[in-house]
């Protein structure tokens, strides 16, 4: 007997029919003798609609009331799934995040989970019931409803799996049911030859998630990694095997590049002739952070004559805000001109095998050169290489590197 956590995303509970299918999967796992937790998201576009509704009332809704509002989407789903299971002749009970003891900090709209109480789950298992839990929400220490950030239901699912493991359950299965059949070597909408992966390590998945490959909420992968909970991402439409996100195994290093990704909408800022003295970079990035702008990659050149050029990238939507800050800073620190390019993208390759293989960067650069794509900036981490390129080359660059590493061939 295992503890099985099944998470169904918004599209997988969008209609009555799909709710019955999800209920059927939970019942099948229960009939196989497992303890079953079902985590559900809000149905279809519900959360987006609730956000729009709030903005019809005010352009600046309070974060606390936003959570109060957005959490209702999941509450609808859990009740409907429980009813569907009842109608099929089985025992089930639904809980909101607060009812199941999922406690978070008080940072509304992006709260972090602090504690999960499994007692209530265990009581229900003892009665043979399937437990349905609302994803994406919890309560803080003062019983205020909080939410975990958009896409947060994945995190609820993995956190519940981790809590059961911590409570001593030996065998944990965590399944994320979605409308795609797994994680691909690249976004199949951009690269039609992309291939579904059988396995990917937590680290690789985290890198891809941070690059905007939006299959999984990255906090969920972090939980999986921390508590070693293998996560099975699979389709709710069929029974085929999806992708296992799991601990890195020695055999994984044989594959140099696991996947490629495109971060399409970026802007680049260059501050020329920045004085090369201690504390200057700290000041620049402190002020940018204070303006709530997240910096993506940073490149500082070797200095000459006590001055250096500093470039960094931000999301294109932050370009105007960052422009104000950069102009002001350049004046304050006595730097030269500030230049902007709002038309850039980033193409990246990710793979744990890079740690032990040479020539990976060269192969990527050659692939881009052969496609006559100019590289503006290069950044690397231990398991990732990224190139900043012109936006108009974005899709072509993704295809070029995907082909170069033969990601479409059966590995
Ligand atoms: N319903 C929430 C959202 O749309 C949470 C989720 O789907 O995971 O962001
Ligand atoms: Mg959703």
Explained architecture:
The chain is α/β, with parallel strands linked by helices and 411 residues long. It has a domain at 3-179: Carbamate kinase, CATH 3.40.1160. 35% of the residues lie in helices and 27% in strands. The protein is built from eleven helices and 18 strands. The strands form four sheets. An eight-stranded mixed sheet has the order 3-6-2-1-9-11-12-10, with helices on both faces. The chain has a six-stranded antiparallel sheet with strand order 14-15-13-16-18-17. α2 (46-57) runs antiparallel to α3 (63-87) and α10 crosses α11. The chain binds aspartic acid and magnesium ion.
Task: Give short descriptive properties of this protein.
binds aspartic acid, six-stranded antiparallel beta sheet, single chain, eight-stranded mixed beta sheet, 411 residues, 11 helices, Carbamate kinase, alpha/beta, 18 strands, binds magnesium ion
